[in-house]
Design brief:
The structure is a single chain. By secondary structure, this protein is α/β, with parallel strands linked by helices. It has three helices and three strands. Strands 2-1-3 form a three-stranded parallel β-sheet, with helices on both faces. Helix 2 crosses helix 3. The radius of gyration is 15 Å and the shape is globular.
């Protein structure tokens, strides 16, 4: 039986939850899965063109979106609207790329 390979793209791969997922995956790797852990060095997900380039490069079947613009408590107090707007823009780029490239989940 020929199984289709699942390509799971994880944004925010260098964050706390992304690293946690990496640890679990290393202990339970499956042949039919390829895991891609993106960091901010791989692409600026605020940029629609870069976001789509990542999707074109890896062709994910599944996406776990963990990336976010974060700062300390005082950064959020001083610019909470800006953090919110940038994170919404990033979410929109990811969702649009998922939709247009027919990501399963």
């Amino acid at each position: 039986m020929d199984m289709e390979k699942n390509v799971i793209l994880v944004t925010g791969g260098s964050g706390l939850v992304g690293k946690g997922i990496q640890m679990v995956i290393k202990s339970d790797m499956r042949e039919a899965e390829e895991w891609i852990f993106l960091t901010s060095k791989d692409a600026n997900l605020l940029n629609k063109k870069e976001t789509f380039a990542v999707f074109d490069k890896y062709k994910p079947t599944h996406v776990i979106h963990l990336a976010a613009i974060v700062g300390g408590l005082y950064a959020h107090i001083g610019a909470n609207c800006e953090f919110f707007r940038k994170n919404m823009q990033m979410n929109d780029n990811i969702l649009e790329a998922c939709h247009k490239t027919k990501v399963k989940k």
